[in-house]
């Protein structure tokens, strides 16, 4: 299953912003780049909240997720696409627990293709990286 369209990081400009300004956390198979929601948007939301109650959940921007996997991981597109599908499935399971407004890019390291690990290990590693960057609710 793919991520919902509202949660996909698509534009080159957004990817570059995450790489330029985002936090970086590493694990054995992934590097996570995470860009916090900007404080300018927070301040405008805070002033709006003071003037009138905010009942719309649509005002809160959704978390955007992108996956970057290069040919250094594997020359075969089949292998790269399988890894990408496993990562998006793991992120979809974690999506309800993510704080809103973040922009995340998961960068796959070549060790992910070599190790032949399953999507359950990917899920655990991603959960650990998200907890380190404090993107998960509760930071467990």
Any overview of this molecule?
With 140 residues, this protein is of the alpha+beta class. Helices cover 43% and strands 15% of the residues. The chain has a 4-stranded mixed β-sheet, with helices on both faces. Helix 3 crosses helix 5. About 12% of the residues have low confidence.
Could you give a short description of this structure?
The protein is of the alpha+beta class and about 140 residues long. Helices cover about 45% and strands about 15% of the residues. It contains five helices and four strands, in the order αββαβαβαα.
Q: pLDDT under 50 segments (min length 5)?
A: 39-55
Spatial order of the strands forming the largest sheet = 1-2-4-3
- Helix and strand composition category: alpha+beta
Rg estimate, integer Å? 16 Å
| Helical content class | 40-55%
Strand count: 4
Average per-residue pLDDT, rounded, comes to: 84
Biggest pleated-sheet summary? 4 strands, mixed
Residue fraction in strands: 15-25%
Order of helices and strands: HEEHEHEHH
Discrete helix count: 5
The end-to-end span amounts to 26 Å
Principal-axes geometry comes out as globular
């Amino acid at each position: 299953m793919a991520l919902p369209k509202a949660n996909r990081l698509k534009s080159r400009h957004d990817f570059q912003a995450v790489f330029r300004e985002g936090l970086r956390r590493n694990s054995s198979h992934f590097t996570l780049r995470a860009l916090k929601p900007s404080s300018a948007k927070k301040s405008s939301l805070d002033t709006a909240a003071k003037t009138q109650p905010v009942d719309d959940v649509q005002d809160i921007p959704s978390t955007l997720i992108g996956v970057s996997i290069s040919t250094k991981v594997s020359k075969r597109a089949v292998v790269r696409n399988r890894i990408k599908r496993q990562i998006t499935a793991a992120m979809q399971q974690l999506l309800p627990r993510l704080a809103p407004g973040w922009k995340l890019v998961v960068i796959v390291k070549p060790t992910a293709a070599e190790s032949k690990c399953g999507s359950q290990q990917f899920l655990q590693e991603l959960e650990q990286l998200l907890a380190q960057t404090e993107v998960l609710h509760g930071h467990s």
